[in-house]
Amino acid sequence: MNKRSVSMTINGTTHTHEVEPRLLLVHYIRELAGLTGTHVGCDTSQCGACVIHMNGQAVKSCTLFAVQANGAQIKTIEGLATDGQLHPIQDAFWEKHGLQCGFCTPGMIMSAVQLLERYPKPSETQIRHELEGNLCRCTGYHNIVKAIQYAAEKMAGK
Amino acid sequence: MATARVLGASIKRREDPRFLTGRGNYTDDVKLQGLTHAAFVRSPHANARIRGIDVAQAKAHPGVVAVFTGKDMTGVQSLPCGWLLPELKIPAHPPLATEAARYVGDPVAVVIAETQAAARDAADLVQVNWDVLPSVTATEQAAAAGAPQIHEVAPSNVAFNWQIGDAAATDAVFKTADVVVRKRIVNQRLVANALEPRACAARYDAATGDLTLWVTSQNPHVHRLLMTAFVLGIPEHKVRVIAPDVGGGFGSKIFLYNEETVCSWATRQINRPVRWTAQRTESFQTDAHGRDHVTDAEIALSRDGKMLGLRVKTVANLGAYLSTFAPAVPTYLYGTLLNGVYTFGAIHCAVTGVFTNTTPVDAYRGAGRPEACYLVERMVDAAAALKMDTAEIRRRNFIPKFANGFETKVALTYDSGDYAGAFDRLLQMFDLKKFRTEQAAARQQGKLMGVGFSTYIEACSIAPSKVVGALGAQAGLWESGTVRVHPTGKVSVYTGSHSHGQGHETTFAQLVADHLGIPMDDVDIIHGDTGSVPFGMGTYGSRSASVGGTALVMSMNKIKEKGKKIAAHLLEAAPGDMDYAGGQFFVKGSPQKAVPFGQVALTAYVPHNYPEGLEPGLEETSFYDPSNFCFPFGAHACVVEVDPDTGGVKVVRYLAVDDVGNVINPMIVDGMVHGGIAQGVGQALWEGAVYESESGQLLTGSMMDYALPKAEMLPMYETARTETPTPVNPLGVKGAGETGTIAATPAVVNAVVDALSGLGVDHIETMPLTPERVWNTIQAARARK
Question: Is A47 on the interface with B (CB under 8 A)?
Answer without folding.
Answer: yes
